[in-house]
Amino acid sequence: xxxxxxxxxxxxxxxxxxxxxxxxxxxxxxxxxxxxxxxxxxxxxxxxxxxxxxxxxxxxxxxxxxxxxxxxxxxxxxxxxxxxxxxxxxxxxxxxxxxxxxxxxxxxxxxxxxxxxxxxxxxxxxxxxxxxxxxxxxxxxxxxxxxxxxxxxxxxxxxxxxxxxxxxx
Length: 169
What we know:
Elements: H1 2-8, E1 13-17, H2 23-31, E2 37-42, H3 48-57, E3 63-67, E4 81-87, H4 95-108, E5 109-117, H5 136-149, E6 156-160, E7 164-168
Parallel strand pairs: 1-2, 1-4, 2-3, 4-5
Antiparallel strand pairs: 5-7, 6-7
């Protein structure tokens, strides 16, 4: 999945929403040192001191980590990013909360939003904190919703990648 994100990344500003341990921002900044900003955000910040230390040690000056609640009305105050990823986070929100998160993500996306979700058979995997189940059809519905929010000004593409991957431009 990360390899595909590397291939799909565009522009000079990258945001990983729901970055968890912060590995993707570190990898992106190593692979693409010309980026002007690489930001990882999450509501849980326990791992941030460790990944900040790694970024400092590797002199990855463009990497930042911030605590952001993706449900908050002010979540878009983090600014605009050319590429925004939300990898395996939507399943952690109820359906109504997921649409609030998506609205906030669309507000900070200048060019490309990359969404990825796992596919689970019947029930969400509560051991992982999942609260909803995705299928290709449901992910495509999410994409159609995003297109409506953009007033039809954009494109949507779907791929099978560790579940489903949705690309909104």
